[in-house]
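Appendix B, example 12.
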Amino acid sequence: MDMMNLMRRVFRLLNKFFMVPLFRLGMGPFIGNPITGYIMVIKNVGRKTGKIRYTPVNYAIRDGYVYCMAGFGKVTHWYKNLKANPSAELILPSGPIAVFMDEVSDQDEVVAISQQLLINTGLAAMLEGLVPFKRVPEDRIINTLVKRGVPLLRFRPTGVGSGASDPSGWLWITMTALTLLVLYFLLR
């Protein structure tokens, strides 16, 4: 098994059993920081199954748009799902929004946004051989991301999405646990 496949499997497990459940429990605001990176969850429909899929990714916000990269390139399943159906929801730490996705093709925009995205990845920047929290030279971005064909996606907000406290969310578990914990300490 090569290193790229191993990383994809590790991320798939971390995402499925850690990141997505925390966002669905309403704990998204407690996850993102400069060290772990700023993370959102993309909620979209699988192109083959029609099932709802959740994918955590690093993001940046600029000029009213939300951006992210498909780090493993155009073979990434969630990227293929978004290409097949560009309407999705983003679960940001501040709340959910409905969006429409398009791919950025302008190289100047790719370089400018990628710069912020790489800073927003925190320590995960080391996976690309980059120094975390530092600006990356433009030629390095072009050689590392553009020439490798890493897609940069731009999400245009179209409305409010469903979040952790809506019927498909799990915030009720967090609130019930906190209520029981408070009751326990009050009645002790």
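Helices lie at 3-24, 77-84, 107-120, 138-146, 171-187. The mean pLDDT is 86.
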